Structures are given as structure tokens and as C-alpha cells.
Amino acid sequence: MAKIIDGKTISQQIKDELKEKVAALKAEGTEIALAVIQVGTDPASTVYVGNKKKACEYVGIRSESYELPEETTQEELLQLIDTLNHKDSVYGILVQLPLPEHIQEDMVIRAIAPEKDVDGFHPQSVGALSIGQKGFVSCTPAGIIQLLKRSGVEIEGKECVVIGRSNIVGKPMALLLLRENGTVTVTHSKTKDLRSVCKRADILVVAIGKPKMIDASYVKEGAVVIDVGVHRNENRKLCGDVDFESVEPIASAITPVPGGVGPMTIAMLMYNCVQAVEIRKG
Which CATH architecture has domain 27-129+263-281? Predict the structure, then answer.
């Protein structure tokens, strides 16, 4: 039976560590503020934003909330970001995605000052990661590395397979595993014989976006399986990209959905907010 990698517990450890750091920074006269911008009232986005605000409150980071109507123009949003870029008390800027169709996400991401890009989506942040320089790292992949390390999973020298090549998860995940000296294969919708590639993996990271697609036939005996997907099944219950019941008996360790990768994303956002202080100090 696989060890269950508990993202709730590990994310709580990280938030407790950060709480101490934030208290120490406050004692030195530095208060961290995170500006959170939401355009429109997408229900899932509202839940995510609420969770981020709760995490800020717990860690001791002040959150500034900007809830803009759906009809906000791209120009108005870019103007707000420019104002926040120049606001010294704000250390991080987060624009909740997805944005309404009339706003270009890429332009918005590029508008955020790289030193305040706590989501790690700015091309400068991604470029720094790709050449091994310091900078913000996308929160979900960074959280997965913490899950592995804090669960005692050795990455160095391991065969790592990432399913998915998105800019937010797949690509940065591959770069982070490389940074930890893993041997990395990135697979995607055009990969031939995906099953046999996955079966080579000592560490399998699944971010394919299809509910329960990865069953035991894709997984090598004793592999560590990280499930990034979040879906609702036919009974409206949360499930991932991995068929947990099928894979759990043969994996050595596995993340559940919910309670695996999800809580780590917000913990690493808080981590990036604290890192922003060091980045500003240069």
C-alpha cells in the first residue's frame, strides 16, 4: 500500500515556518502586503481568492483586495497594475486567472513588475528558472518539490516523467526536477505510446487535465505518483487525473485529491511573498 503524501500537513508546516519569518520581519519594521486582483465573479476564482486571503491572514501578510467588475477594460486593469508596481508597501501582485475574454492574459502577466510577480508567471521569472538563476517559481510546481522533499523522496538520479507541458505546471515542473538532478521526460497529447513512457517513471507527475485517466497500467511498481488534476466526478465528488483506487496499491507514495497538491499551491504563494522581501533587498 502506498504512503499517502499529505499536502494539508506539509502546507501547514510551511505556513507555520513563514508565520515566524513574517513576525521577525514585522519586528524589524517590514510589513508585507499582497495585492490580489479579481476581475468578475467566477465562482471558482472567488473560492481561490478567499483561500489566499485566509492564508495571508494566518501567516501575517496584509492582503489588499481589488474586486473589479466583469466589464473592466484591459486598459483600466493595466493602469491598476502600474499603480501597484509603484506602491512601495505592496511586495506582491496577484491577478486571479482566468480573466474575462476581452482581456489578454499575456499582456496582464507581462505588466506585473518581475520583482512583485509572486505567481512566477512573468517571462523574466520563467527565464531565470530556465537558466538556473534566482527568481519566483510558479507555485504549484514549487509546492510539488516541497511535497517530495518533505516526504523523504529522493529526486537526484531518478527517472521523472511529467505528463503535461503547460506554462504554469508542466514546463516549470520539468525545470525544477532537472534542478534537483532528476532525469526528466516531458510528455503531452502528441506523445507516442504514453503508457510505456510513464511506466519508466520513478516519479510520475500528472497534469493532463483529464479525470482519472492515469490508471495502474501507466504506473511502475513502487513509483511515486503526484496528481495535479482537480475535477468533479459524476457524483460531484472531487477527483484527480489519476485513478487513485487503481494506482494506490502499486505506488510507493501518492498524493490524494483533495488534500495533496492543492494546499501546497497557496503555501508556496505565501513563501513567494516572503521571498519578495529578499528580492527587493537584492
Answer: 3-Layer(aba) Sandwich (3.40)
Domains of the chain, by residue range, sit at 27-129+263-281, 139-261
The CATH code that applies to domain 139-261 is 3.40.50.720
Residue 37 C-alpha cell reads as 486582483
Whole-prediction pTM:
0.95
Rounded to whole angstroms, what are the CA distances from 14 to 4, 17, 41, 127, 159? 18, 5, 30, 26, 27
* Residue 96 among the catalytic residues: yes
Strands 238-239 and 231-232: antiparallel
**52 catalytic residue (yes or no):** yes
Exactly one of 15, 116, 119, 171 is catalytic; name it: 119
Task: Look at residue 187 and give its three-state secondary structure.
Answer: strand
Q: Do 27-129+263-281 and 139-261 fold alike per CATH?
A: yes
DSSP 215: -
Catalytic residue among 52, 171, 212, 220: 52
How does pLDDT run along the chain (282 residues), one tens digit per residue? 899 999 999 999 999 999 999 999 999 999 999 999 999 998 888 999 999 999 999 999 999 999 999 999 999 999 999 999 999 999 999 999 999 999 999 999 999 999 999 999 999 999 999 998 989 999 999 999 999 999 999 999 999 999 999 999 999 999 999 999 999 999 998 999 999 999 999 999 999 999 999 999 999 999 999 999 999 888 888 999 999 999 999 999 999 999 999 999 999 999 999 999 988 987
Nearest Cα to 17, choosing from 280, 277, 268? 268
Q: Which of 15, 38, 96, 212 is catalytic?
A: 96
